[in-house]
Amino acid sequence: MSTTITFTIDGVDVQGEPGQTIMQAADAAGIYIPRLCAFEDLSPHGSCRVCTVMVNGRPQSACTQPISEGMTVENNTDEITEIRKDIIEMLFVEGNHYCMFCEKSGNCELQALAYRFGIAVPKFPYLWPERDVDASHPDILIDRNRCILCGRCVRASRDVDGKTIFEFVGRGPNKRVAVNAEANLKDTDAAVTDTAMDACPVGALLKKRVGYATPVGERRYDHNPIGSDIESKRTTTA
Amino acid sequence: MTTTATIGTKKITIDPVTRVEGHGRVTIHLDEENNVQQARMHIIEFRGFERFILGRPYWEVPVLVQRLCGICPVSHHLAAAKTMDRIVGGENLTPTAEKMRRLMHYGQFFQSHALHFFHLCSPDLLFGFDADPAIRNVIGVAKDERYADLAVQGVMMRKFGQEIIKATAGKKIHGTGAIPGGINKNLSIQERDMFLKDIDQMVEWSRQALNLAKNYTVEHLEDLASFGSFDSNHLSLVREDGAMDIYHGNLRAIDAQGEPIFDQVDYQDYTDYIAEEVRPWSYMKFPFIKSLGPEEGWYRVGPLARVNACDFIDTPEAEAARKEFMAVTEDKPNNITMAYHWARMIETLHAAEKIKELLNDPDLQGTDLVTKGERRHEAVGLVEAPRGTLFHHYQVDDNDQVTMANLIVSTTSNNVPMNRAVEKVAEEYISGKPEITEGLLNHIEVAIRAYDPCLSCATHAMGQMPLIVELHDACGNVVDKKTRD
Question: CA of A133 to nearest chain B CA: how many angstroms apart?
Answer without folding.
Answer: 8
